[in-house]
Amino acid sequence: MNEEWSEVFDECVQKTKLKRWIKVVTLGSPHVGKSSLIKSFCEKKVPKIYRPTVGIDYGCSNVQLVDSEVMVTFWDMSGHDDYKLIRQPLYKDTDICLLVYDESSNESFSKLGEYYKEFKLHAGKYGNIVVVGNKLDAVGTKSKSRSELEKWTNGHKLEVHQVSSFDYEDVANMFRHVLTTLI
Ligand SMILES: Nc1nc2c(ncn2[C@@H]2O[C@H](COP(=O)(O)OP(=O)(O)OP(=O)(O)O)[C@@H](O)[C@H]2O)c(=O)[nH]1
Ligand SMILES: [Mg+2]
């Protein structure tokens, strides 16, 4: 490697070391679209066929925010009870936990409390918990009556977003907002 390239290489290594790493965990009932939200943000595509996450999926992506660049690591958990023991030890050092429910499923909304407690019990110190109502397209309008939603989220002092994985721009805006709020 010549001297010029060596300097560029060193600079890149230095920048990578300095970059802030952010750990994002997704949690919520099976089939609510946790993996889809990540795919929507990182790849601008959402698989139509349901492939349940087996245990946990891991990935990372460089994200450019207005004033900084961050490396986001995604810890995408299966929502299935069978994987509780696998996912619980992985909550440590979480910066952002996305608690996801399906706008068209009241059951998934009513289960949020269980996932919230599970996360708090095993995470130790964490950054933010954010509630995400996904599949907004399936209900046409903001389905959860604001009062029902706000009763739960305000009670726990949680920020809430209602999106559809298929609306890539909306999903990207949500992730950017959540990441920017943290740093
Ligand atoms: N209509 C609609 N369907 C969606 C949306 N997001 C995801 N889906 C569909 O919902 C199904 C489940 O999505 P996944 O992302 O695999 O769900 P998950 O929460 O990761 O499920 P587990 O890994 O089993 O916990 C898939 O068939 C997706 O195509 C959305 O915003 N709207
Ligand atoms: Mg999944």
Q: What does it look like?
A:
There is one protein chain. The model has no long low-confidence stretch (mean pLDDT 91). This protein has a single domain (3-182), classed as Rossmann fold, CATH 3.40.50.300. 39% of the residues lie in helices and 24% in strands. It has helices at residues 3-18, 34-43, 84-87, 106-110, 112-123, 146-155, 168-182, and strands at residues 20-27, 56-64, 69-77, 96-102, 128-134, 159-162. The protein is α/β, with parallel strands linked by helices and 183 residues long. It is globular. The protein is built from seven helices and six strands; from the N terminus they run αβαββαβααβαβα. Strands 2-3-1-4-5-6 form a six-stranded mixed sheet, sandwiched between helices. The structure holds guanosine-5'-triphosphate and magnesium ion (MG).
